């Protein structure tokens, strides 16, 4: 067990879209608040197929993002710093499964493709702002409140974009894996339907 866990990390590396969250408080019943979507490099630790009752299927990937602590960046910004925390250490549970993992449905070989996806997700997130306003559209306070919410959203999104920039700088040593075997593995997974 010690030899397995001390081995060098040779997981494939890809780009993925990371959902940046902030810890929620009393108002949100302590549920995390999604602040934005960014592009991040990640280690791919597992791929699997999920089957649905309608007969369709989708491939999902368990990945480990090296940085995802938005709260640390926000705290450091209050102290005129730009710190995103230490790189995540990959640990293993009793069954040798690596953690902490996130599940994503898309992996990308290029930053640009992943950026397109993150921008689409951020547009969707912004589109839901109006539903958070507790006034009816006919109420004069609706427009001002919506404007305030949009302004706060843009502020949060700019912090997320700074997080993306800092994360990509700190992961320059992580080289994207151009692995022909990944295509074969995905074909193998699809052929098992």
Comma- or semicolon-separated keywords:
40% helix; globular; alpha+beta; four-stranded antiparallel sheet; single chain; 193 residues; two-stranded antiparallel sheet; 6 helices
Descriptive report:
The structure is a single chain. With 193 residues, this protein is α+β, with helices and mostly antiparallel strands. Helices cover 40% and strands 23% of the residues. The chain contains 6 helices and 6 strands. It has helices spanning 2-6, 70-78, 111-127, 129-132, 141-170, 180-191, and strands at 13-22, 33-51, 57-64, 91-92, 98-99, 102-104. The strands form 2 sheets. A 4-stranded antiparallel beta sheet has the order 1-2-3-6. Strands 4-5 form a two-stranded antiparallel ribbon. The protein starts with a helix and ends with a helix.
Secondary-structure map:
Blueprint: H1 2-6, E1 13-22, E2 33-51, E3 57-64, H2 70-78, E4 91-92, E5 98-99, E6 102-104, H3 111-127, H4 129-132, H5 141-170, H6 180-191
Antiparallel strand pairs: 1-2, 2-3, 3-6, 4-5
Structural class: alpha+beta
- Series of secondary-structure elements, N-terminal to C-terminal: HEEEHEEEHHHH
User: What separation lies between the terminal Cα atoms?
Assistant: 33 Å
Evaluate the radius of gyration.
19 Å
Extract low-pLDDT stretches.
1-7
Mean pLDDT: 87
Tell me the fraction of residues in β-strands, as a range: 15-25%
Strand order of the largest sheet: 1-2-3-6
Shape: globular
DSSP helix fraction: 25-40%
Oligomerization category of the chains in this entry: single chain
The beta-strand count equals 6
Enumerate how many helices there are, as a single number.
Answer: 6
Largest sheet: 4 strands, antiparallel
């Amino acid at each position: 067990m010690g030899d397995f866990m001390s081995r060098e990390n040779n997981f494939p590396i890809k780009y993925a879209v990371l959902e940046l969250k902030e810890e929620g408080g009393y108002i949100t019943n302590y549920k995390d608040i999604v602040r934005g979507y960014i592009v991040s490099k990640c280690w791919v630790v597992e791929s699997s197929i999920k089957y649905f009752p309608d007969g369709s299927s989708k491939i999902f990937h368990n990945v480990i993002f090296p940085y995802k602590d938005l709260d640390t960046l926000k705290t450091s910004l209050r102290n005129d710093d730009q710190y995103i925390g230490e790189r995540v250490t990959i640990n293993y549970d009793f069954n040798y499964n690596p953690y902490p993992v996130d599940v994503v449905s898309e992996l990308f070989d290029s930053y640009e493709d992943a950026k397109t996806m993150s921008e689409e997700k951020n547009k969707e997130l912004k589109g839901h702002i109006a539903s958070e306003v507790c006034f009816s559209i006919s109420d004069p306070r609706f427009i001002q409140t919506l404007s305030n919410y949009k302004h706060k959203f843009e502020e949060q999104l700019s912090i997320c974009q700074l997080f993306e920039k800092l994360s990509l700088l700190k992961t320059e040593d992580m080289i994207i894996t151009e692995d022909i075997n990944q295509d074969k593995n995905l074909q193998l997974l699809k052929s098992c339907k």
